[in-house]
Amino acid sequence: MGSYKKNAFTYATIVAMGGFVFGLDAALISGTVKFITQEFSLTDLELGSVVGAPAMGVLLALVFVGYACNKYGRRTTLMFAAILYLVSAVCSSLAPTYWTLITARFLGGLAFSSISLASMYIGEIAPPKWRGKLVSMTQINIVLGLSAAYFINYLILGLADSDAHWVAALGINQHTWRWMLATEVIFALLWFVLLFFIPRSPAWLLYKGREDEAEKMLLKVTPQNEIAQKIQEMRSSIENSNQDRSMLTQLKEIFSRPMRITMVIAMTLAIAQQATGINAILFYAPTVFEQLGIGTDAAFAQAIYIGLTSVVFTVLGLLLVDRIGRRPMIIWGMLWIVLSLGVCYYGFETANYTITESAISEMSSIPDAERLNPLIDVPFDSDISFKKALNETLGETDAKAYSGLLLQKAANINALLILLGILSFIGAFHFSIGPVMWVLFSEIFPISLRGIAIPFFTLVTSFVSYLVQKFFPWQLATMGISLTLLFYAIVVTIGMVILYFFLKETKNMSIEEVQLALAPKPKRQT
């Protein structure tokens, strides 16, 4: 490997580590749900606000990140994002109240925009033949971060249940959820330090008129005989992007008739990707697995499989997207998602719940477990009716606190079928619409509109993500797990039908060819 390739790989690896911190930040909260609900006496909607707070932060950040990376540079903005992750992790782990926890997580959400910024930086320093692979490192790092978060949560929960003296001395058993969130500090600090070792983007240096510095930087990542051409290409791109066109003008163009098909595709992808319910599963993983009646400890352990499945199918998807094509991966992938959600719906819908006298005698950890006696041998045909009876019998606080144990003792459910359905859903998402949506976003918009179009539709998908995270606990409590998953399946089916009629294959096509393929057909003269 030549020195310039080695440098490009090193810089891209460091920047892509932001994806790991993002995945870690996003998924660590999954292990804290029950603990923070008890400590702050949260309602379902309040819990949704805590989990969804970063999604609100990224909505605000996306408005300003373009300005920041142009004024202060890509590297400086990435450093600021690392600081936000660091401050958010510290403040979240120390949060004394519900509102301080929301505020701290909102700050972390401001840093989530670093994902799109990382892709921008890597695209600007990567050799053309390596660009796709190096840019995809960010996506792979995200799922690695998710996997690490589930493993860390499982490890800390195991420590909290141990009798080790040092565990009690550090307060891990008393402040379990705070230790889970605090682990992010290590990785955010490491990323911040490593960012000092990457150079400024050559495109930004040229944008600021510092051509000599841009050439020196390019020497580190580009063969010397290609630098002049690279400088000329960047100069032409900057000149084209400096046209005096307001944001409103560009947004109007996105929604104009010539862009109608592109807009329908982008809007459908942006909504359907998050309406799959992926972030409900990822960010509430132990909560979802508890519905299987396997107990809290096992639920944390099963969540690790979500991370591993995410990694495997993300890598497979990125390796095969240029072979299989975008359209087949999206359409068949969405059908796979719908079928997987259908399996989960069937498994939960056919479950029933009954508490026996012997089960009550085994639940010594529940204070005054005799309160459950009126429910002995009473059959319940849904998780909703069972939870309602528990709330009336134990009170909402105790019913939530011991939900994992109660479901474990009462559920008659095909746990293996549902587990396979959930893992199939995770694999389908990360193989198809998860990563491929971003590939399509980089291809279907003309260069002149890309700077506005991609952030705009990222805002759409981020807002849908927020709604999913915010309302999932409420849906779980009011609709039940089976109807919630059925709702996601119906929305995805609608999106799949729309894309079946509008989405064109863009594999191996130039930007100009993509625009021609997506242009509305002229009306026939009569």
Automatic annotation (TrEMBL):
InterPro entries hit by this protein: MFS_dom, MFS_sugar_transport-like, MFS_Sugar_Transporter, MFS_trans_sf, Sugar/inositol_transpt, Sugar_transporter_CS
Q: Does the keyword Cell membrane apply?
A: no
Give its localization. Membrane
Q: Does the keyword Transport apply?
A: yes
For the Major facilitator superfamily (MFS) profile domain, which residue ranges apply?
Answer: 11-507
Pfam families, alphabetized:
Sugar_tr (PF00083)
Q: Give the transmembrane ranges.
A: 9-29, 49-69, 76-95, 101-122, 134-157, 177-198, 261-286, 298-321, 330-348, 415-440, 447-468, 480-503
- Report membrane topology: Multi-pass membrane protein
Enumerate the SUPFAM superfamilies for this protein: MFS general substrate transporter (SSF103473)
Family under the similarity heading = Belongs to the major facilitator superfamily. Sugar transporter (TC 2.A.1.1) family.
- Full protein name: MFS transporter, sugar porter (SP) family
Annotated organism of origin = Zobellia uliginosa
